[in-house]
Design brief:
Blueprint (H helix, E strand, L loop, with lengths): L1 H4 L9 H16 L10
Length: about 40
């Protein structure tokens, strides 16, 4: 997550924001924008 969103300490994010960022990463991965097939 920190690699794609440049968040230095993602483990310090509140749970709601963490879940939102994970959902964004999943969406980006599904669209093929990350260069990987699946994040989780």
């Amino acid at each position: 997550m920190s690699l794609f969103f440049h968040i230095p300490f993602p483990e310090d994010l509140p749970d709601e924001l963490w879940a939102e960022k994970v959902a964004q990463l999943k969406w980006l991965a599904e669209k093929g924008l990350l260069g990987i097939k699946s994040v989780l």
